[in-house]
Every structure is written in structure tokens, then in C-alpha cells.
Write a structure and sequence with these properties.
single chain
């Protein structure tokens, strides 16, 4: 029952946000913008989504401590997971399918969950680093400020790994938070003898997230809007991370609102923001059909 209530809430939020945007925007202008899309840049954006999924698969493969699992299998599973994201109620809904199938292959759902969870978590860290760099760049702050904050984040993370197990006081109101922290700590401890794997995964994450950012950059480019690169590096990671936190159906509704909120501050019209978000949904859907074909081939 609780599961269906959450799904209902997400449907209500997505439809409400879309309804609000459509009522406050001239729909005819949005349609006119969509009809003027540049197919070349839309194609570039779609190719970058494929690049994103392939490098994400490599990142995921680094974290699977089993040499019998091939990278081809991981790429295939990643595309199928992206296909299921279209029908499951969150932007990471396909992870459930990936965990299940990889768990069957490994003979351990725990190991499958750990690798998948850590793949997502390292990706979030990479997003924060890129967003911080983008913010400092467009704010005209020097690179030393970025390095100091980055070093502080790294030191804080290692302090967490070392001292968290000794922290026994856990208030009841924060039990869910501590449950997440327990999972993160347990996941990293499993790789304490393989620090290079974590390093490779982080580097792969930087490639993954930069390709995701430029996917959306070229979506805007296809609508004859050239966003400042430094602002893009700041804004898109925040939009990605907000997508995990805001209940919605695969980012529908929430992404449109976030696009409008961020890019209107640099003079991009609301109609263009909504059209760009719609095109991004379409490009992901089109690429995910590769996963649908791979899934049907398994049957």
C-alpha cells in the first residue's frame, strides 16, 4: 500500500508541475520552438547519451569484484535498465532490474546492490565536484578556492570512513539518514583493499557526468541557444541531483521547473526551457529503445 501511495504522489507532483507550466506558458510558442529544432545538434546529444551509458557501464564494471562478468554484459544490462526507467516511478527505477539480474549472475544480490549503489554514489560525488568548479568559474573565483574546497571535501570523506564506525549515538529522528550512511560506509569498506578501482570509477564518473552535461548543452544548442559553459557545469549537476530528491515520474515535471528556474536567470525564455526539457526526455527515450530491443532479444 505504501508503495502505491508513493507512486500516486509522484504522479500527482509530475502532472501538477506540468499543468502549472503549461498554464503559465504560451503552448503555441513551445510548439513553434520544437518545430525549429536543429536535427544535427539533437543527434549529437543522442550520441552523447550512448557515450554516457557506455562509460557508466565501465564505471559499474570496475566496482564488480568478479572477473567473470564481461563489459559487454554490463553495457547490455545498463541499456536495459535505462529502458525500464521509462516505466518505473523514479529516474533510478531501472537500478532495481540491474541489481536483480546482476545478482543472479554473481550469485549474490548483496554484492550486486553494493556495486550498483556505489556506482550511483560516486557519480553524485563527481557531480558535486563539477558543479563546484562551474560555480567558482562563473563567479570569477580563483582556482585555488576550488582546490581548497575540494581538498576539504576529500579530507571530510576520509574522516567519515575512519571515524563513522565509532559514532554510536544515533537519534531516532535521524535513523533513515544513518541507515543510508551505514550502507555507504559498508560499501566503501568492501573496497578498502582495492583503492585503485575507486579511483578508476571516479575518473569514469567525471567522463559520464561531463557527457551528461554536454548532452543537455547540445539540446539547448539544437534550439539555437548557446549556454555559457561554466554556468552549464554549475547548473546541470544541481538539476540532476535535485531529480533524485524531488518525487516525480522519471524527472517529468520537476526537470521542466528546474530548467526554467535556473536558465531564466541568464535570460533564457521559459518556452525554450520547457522545449529543451521535452527534447531531452525524447532523446533519452529514443536511446533507451536500444535497451528495449536487447530485452526482447533475451526472451
Amino acid at each position: 500500500m505504501k508503495k502505491y501511495l508513493k507512486l500516486t504522489l509522484k504522479i500527482i507532483i509530475s502532472t501538477s508541475l506540468i499543468g502549472y507550466l503549461l498554464l503559465s506558458t504560451d503552448i503555441s510558442k513551445v510548439l513553434d520552438i520544437l518545430f525549429r529544432v536543429n536535427p544535427f545538434y539533437f543527434f549529437v546529444a543522442s550520441i552523447l547519451i550512448i557515450v554516457n551509458y557506455v562509460f557508466s557501464s565501465f564505471r559499474w564494471r570496475y566496482l564488480v569484484l568478479d572477473s567473470k562478468i564481461s563489459i559487454i554484459y554490463m553495457i547490455k544490462l545498463y541499456f536495459i535498465g535505462s529502458f525500464f526507467n521509462n516505466f518505473l516511478p523514479t529516474s533510478i527505477g531501472g537500478d532495481a532490474y540491474k541489481i536483480m539480474k546482476l545478482g543472479e549472475k554473481l550469485g549474490s544480490k548483496t554484492n550486486s546492490f553494493t556495486a550498483t549503489f556505489l556506482e550511483r554514489f560516486i557519480g553524485m560525488i563527481a557531480l558535486l565536484v563539477i558543479s563546484l568548479y562551474g560555480y567558482l568559474t562563473f563567479s570569477n573565483l580563483n582556482i585555488m578556492s576550488f582546490l581548497m574546497v575540494f581538498i576539504l571535501v576529500i579530507l571530510s570523506f576520509f574522516a567519515y570512513l575512519i571515524f563513522y564506525p565509532k559514532f554510536t549515538f544515533k537519534p531516532k529522528l535521524l535513523l533513515k539518514l544513518f541507515d543510508v550512511l551505514d550502507k555507504i560506509h559498508a560499501s566503501f569498506m568492501r573496497y578498502k583493499k582495492e583503492p585503485m578501482l575507486l579511483g578508476y570509477s571516479f575518473l569514469a564518473s567525471l567522463v559520464v557526468q561531463v557527457s551528461a552535461i554536454f548532452t543537455q548543452y547540445y539540446i539547448f544548442k539544437s534550439l539555437e541557444v548557446t549556454l555559457p559553459v561554466d554556468f552549464s557545469l554549475f547548473a546541470f549537476p544541481i538539476i540532476f541531483l535535485s531529480g533524485y530528491a524531488i518525487p516525480s515520474l522519471n524527472g517529468i515535471g520537476s526537470q521542466e521547473v528546474l530548467y526554467t528556474s535556473f536558465f531564466s536567470t541568464i535570460g533564457v525564455a521559459a518556452g525554450i526551457c520547457i522545449a529543451a526539457s521535452f527534447l531531452y526526455h525524447i532523446s533519452r527515450l529514443v536511446v533507451s529503445l536500444i535497451g528495449g530491443l536487447l530485452y526482447l532479444n533475451e526472451k
